[in-house]
Amino acid sequence: MKLTLKVWRQNGPNDKGNLETHQVEASEHMSFLEMMDVLNENLISEKKTPVAFEHDCREGICGTCNMVINGRPHGPQKGTTVCQLHMRAFKDGDTIVVEPWRASAFPVIKDLVVDRSPFDRIIQAGGYISVNTGQAQDANAIPIEKDLASQAFDAATCIGCGACVAACPNGSAMLFTSAKVAHLNMLPQGEVESSKRVLNMVNQMDEEGFGMCSNVGACEAECPKEISITNIALMNREYLTASLASNTTT
Amino acid sequence: MSWFSKFLGSSIGRKLLMSLTGLFLISFLPVHLAGNLQLLAGDGGEAFNTYAEFMTTNPLIKFISYGLYFFILLHTFLGVRIWLRNRSAKGSKYAVSSTGTSSFSSRNMAWLGIIIFAFLVLHLYQFWLKMKMGVLEKVNVAGLDEPVNNLYAPVEAAFTDPIYVIIYVIAMIVIGFHLWHGFQSSFQTLGLNHKKYTPVIKGLGAIYSIVVPLGFIVIPIVFYLRHAM
User: In three state form, how does the secondary structure of chain A look?
Assistant: First the structure.
């Protein structure tokens, strides 16, 4: 299949950047990333700079292959990452526009690569459990209702790719932060530090310059792991309780 | 108090204020509508003027009305600030944009809100300010010794003017769209997202955002048609 690609090229955070048009011949069995590899092979053979894009596992769990394809983070297919998107989702002769995540907190490093380190700092602010949780068998000895465990697991499937921020018209990171808060606060091991966790994580999220959730719901529609915005309601609840009712004053 | 100002200044704290002030305004609209529906009594404005006199002199209502002015301003001010912050947080726009499954209302709350505020300025200038300035003529109503302000007169004048009727109807439709998202969104912000109650809240929000603006729309249209016929 013959495709016209319009790819965002930007040399660095301060470069203005623009869309560059290329013709690519791909097979419909290729993944989107393999098609991008073909584009880069072509560029290298023409002695041009290949398009910088992130990729790692190529099986939908690392959260690095981040591109906005025709206006949608991770492309037109629901519940998948770019590496899981295949060219059969497109037609011969299609024009495909490929852009990086756009949010002030995620500045472009080069081409399609953005700096997602704000997410790392949100995790550092409280996305962990610091009390002694024992060995693996100790976790199995704690009774947890199946529904609750499933809910916590659903939240834990977040791969931190940032598609929620990319999709949000407000550049808000509340779906990501709430998934991490929900995952840990719902389980008994995480509950003991729940107040401190939600206060610190929300505080860090605000400091990173993300926008405020206005319950548009674009994030959950584009999330490759289909994380629900019920997690945001849970985070709001946890934050209100922690702010107003807990003894934590920081 | 530092923890409290930090809480109110946080993203979730600000959203909480938007939600609570919004819910207060939501509770106010049906009261306003119930009062306005007396315009249709067909008694030359007696019921409406009696009601207007009560609303402007009753101490409890006066107290609540100061709260109302304050919450309208707070909701507007915070809304604009959140909107500006969100715009700068988004930064640059996509060359190709997709709105996906999100509703028109949810993506345009700020614009809808600004239109509503502009209408409110006109609305208050036209009726409320005249009442407060005491420039209205006085009429006698049954049951009260003193003559009262004839607020019915400027209302009748406005509602028989086709341009004002059109502005009014458009403003009510805009309010309907604002409520379409605002009603259910305020509960989500409060953390009230529940398998059993959220569908009920969304259903009620949909009914409310259609029925209440429609109630307001009926009044000028009835006035206009009565006048035209």
Answer: CEEEEEEEECCCCCCCCEEEEEEEECCCCCEHHHHHHHHHHHHHHCCCCCCCCCCCCCCCCCCCCCCEECCEECCCCCCCCHHHCEHHHCCCCCEEEEECCCCCCCCEEECCEECCHHHHHHHHHHCCCCCCCCCHHHHHHCCCCHHHHHHHHHHHCCCCCCHHHHHCCCCECHHHHHHHHHHHHCCHHHHCCHHHHHHHHHHHHHHCCCECCCCCCHHHHHCCCCCCCHHHHHHHHHHHHHHHHCCCCC
